[in-house]
Every structure is written in structure tokens, then in C-alpha cells.
Description:
By secondary structure, the protein is an alpha/beta fold.
Amino acid sequence: MRVRAAVAGLDRRRRLGESEWSNLSVAQPNLHIAEYHVAEKFGRDERVVLYPGDCLEFLRTCPDRSFQLIVTSPPYNLGKEYEKRLKLRTYVEQQTLVIRECVRTLRRTGSICWQVGNYVEEGCIVPLDTLLYPVFTSCGLRMRNRIVWHFEHGLHCSRRFSGRYETIMWFTKSDDYVFDLDAVRVPQKYPGKKHFKGPKAGQYSCNPLGKNPGDVWAIPNVKSNHVEKTEHPCQFPVELIERLVLSLTREDDWVFDPFLGTGTSVIAAIRHGRRGAGAEVMPKYVDLARDRIAQEIEGTLRTRPMHRPVYDPVQAGNALTRAPWINPEPGGSDGASLLGEVDT
């Protein structure tokens, strides 16, 4: 499959101006190369590889130390349409096979980011990162961060607190690893703050490039009203992977996702001049990933901008934030009638 980067999108951006273009949440045409060949087999000279099959089969064709970043969200063993629910021991054994092959194909300066949530059975949760951590350390990897990805939307629970986070385990293969903090700094909370004593008194104390984003990331998850939503039930937001790609790789490095899903990891990679590879077993998601990758290359894929603040419905004046039983509209029903009889 060959996809040509469309220059029409770039011309449109120039006509609209930067501010209007950013509000559209549309990807820029990828101009790093004039033409992309989306291959199905790995080759160091390729730019994009989409393997329609099992990731272990694909990994066995990849040479040692091929990838700078391996990032993925594996099945959570919840019985989704793309996974079979297994006993936890069997699930960990299957994950171990994949992780070991990932470690073999990881460069010495590379990183593995494994994003997981909780396994839930009969109302009890098992944090999957606690089960998989020993697998990574047994392969000689070093954990650098356990990043908490916080989001606002998900299932509502009645017998426990609703889950509103998942974790990203970041491991490196050695102590000599790539980490570009400046590429992912976020705005300072108090950019005008100054040193109040000592030899630097009166000088600004903040880094002008921004601050370290920390290890708790508030990034909206992809639900029904998200601009990136597809039919996949557990989809990565592109901006989550962009932060990892920018900080843990350099241009032209390889990024690999063994459980590619809708292609988000490859999209984030090629958006920033990296090479992207992924494997996916379900044909409909392979087709979906191929279409989204093509849109990214053409500059037509709509995504949520990386640095956009999380939507605040109160600040935006959304009418649904006004509780009708607290401030009933004139002439409308009072709060008691909306809620039923209220005990006093």
C-alpha cells in the first residue's frame, strides 16, 4: 500500500491561519518524506510497518536491538471481543512470552512502556502492573516511573469507588537511556515566581521552557464524544503516546506496538518523524489502523491537540452543570418535585 502525503492540507492550513487550524484538531501532512510505503514485513529501511497477525510471529522476524521504544496497552483479560478471558496465571505466561521478545528487540538505550489497568472479577480488582512487574525485572529491565494516567470518564460503580486511572510502567534496558525532558515540558503554574533569598534573589526561579509534567498525567480517555473515537472499545488517545515518543526517542528511531489496535502508536511515531511498526490480529482493526495511518500521512486525521487543557464544563458555561434541584428555573418545578419527597 502506498500513500502520498497530500499538500492540499498544508495549503489549507496557510489559508486558515494557525489559530483556526489548531481548533480543527487536524494532523499536519507528514512532510518528512514525500511517500510512505506501509509494509507488512519489518525492514530497517521501512518507515511504517503494519503486520496483520500475531505479534510473536512478527517479533521473531525482527533482529535484536531494532526498536528504541516499545509502547503498548495489552489486553486486560476482561473478555473483550479481541481477547479470551484466561486464568491469571495463563495470562501472565502469555504476556511473558511477548515481553521477553520485546526485550530482545529493544535497543540498549531504549524504553518499554506497558500501559495496563485492573483485572476485575466478582467485584474484586487485581492491579495488572503488580503481576507484570516481576516479569520485566526478571528480564533485567529497570523501572524509571510508574506513571498514573488519570481520566474523568468510565464505568460507574456502586459497591466500590469508580476507577479513574490506569498506569504506564516505564522500563529501560540500561542506565544509558534516551530521555528528552525539554520536548515534553508543560506550562509553569507560577511562571512569574522569583527566588526570595540567596545569591539568586530577585531572579526568576522557573525554567522558561516549562516544568516537568510529573508522573500523574490528566489526559482525557477516548469515549463517545472524543474526536478520535472509533469502534474499538479501548482506544489510546494519540496525545498520551506523543508524550512518550517525544521524550524517549529521537527522530528516525523505531517505535513498536505489539498490540496495535487502531494504530495510535504508529500515528504518534510518524507524526514526529519517527518510524512506526505494529502488529494486530483482528482484521477489522488492521483495516481501521491502516485507514487512520493513511489519514495521518495525508494530514486529515482529526485528533485532540497535545497541549489543550482538559475541558472544564463549568468554565465553559455548560448548562448541564447547573443542578435543577438546587437552582430551579423560574416557573419550573421545584427541587423537591424533581427528586421526589425529601426527608428532613
